[in-house]
Amino acid sequence: MNWISNVVRPKINSFLNRREVPENLWVKCPETGQMVFHKDLEANLHVIPGSGYHMRMEPMARLRSVFDGGKWYDVALPSVAADPLKFRDEKRYVDRLKDARAKTGAQDAVKVGYGKLDGLAVTVAVQDFGFMGGSLGMAAGEAVVTGLETAASRGTPFIIFACGGGMRMQEGILSLMQMPRTTCAVQELREAKLPYIVVLTNPTTGGITASYAMLGDIQIAEPGALIGFAGPRVIEQTIREKLPEGFQRAEYLRDHGMVDMVVHRHDMRATLARLCRLLMRVPQPAVVTTETPHTEPVVPETAALPAPAAVAAQ
Question: Would you kindly state where each structural domain of the chain is located, as residue ranges?
């Protein structure tokens, strides 16, 4: 009886009361293999502390890092046909959309917000690589166009964090038509003389690079981001040559004139605020000093000097 009560019963209770431990508590750095606790990674804007590797950032976290106080207004996006071509490969396209929406909690790959950045009104769009690789379909194209039109109508700069693997093959020609549509919307913003700033994140490839992602007034890239049209492996197989070290990475593109600057994520908000104020010709806010006034009278330095000797009259 003692064996049953002292050994068997506690083991049964521990088995029944076992708690499931989430699998994503620790994140591994793709470059160094360093393990980082997920809370520490979130607090560091999803940058690995040791190596500085920039992990992907979901749209909500990205918007919180940009807007003042982490607060903004969601821009309503138009609805589109869910499966215009009735596409099916190994799975139906509508089922893939359901899985992506359940995984990310978003309707599609682009989210648009309106708010204040350092006191200046801005419109910001973010692409989510977690939603079918950030691919550009009808819904994502409509979101980018709506964001550009919102910026034009409200007279604000438009900032987009581009990310994705290109066009969405399940929508065929309807997906490809988002390239000229977004390009025309960029031109409308340019005619309104409003800034268009593009932040290229990892990865930005395919038709996204071939359209709105390379049309910014200012082209910014995050460190180490893969930016190009075709992938490096495809290029090597096509030309049958070894590509240069760091080819298609943000630093390589900056050195060869395709990107204006490479900005660390910790400095991104301050850089965007400074660029928006510069392009909008809005002066920087006055710096308010917080120094406490002296409570005791300050004696001028000259009071400590000896009085000048009298000059005898000639």
Answer: 24-55, 57-280
7, amino acid identity: V
Phi, psi dihedrals of residue 201, rounded to the nearest 5°: -110, 175
CATH T-level topology, domain 57-280: 2-enoyl-CoA Hydratase; Chain A, domain 1 (3.90.226)
Q: pLDDT digits over 4-35, tens only?
A: 666 566 666 665 555 554 557 899 999 899 99
pTM: 0.83
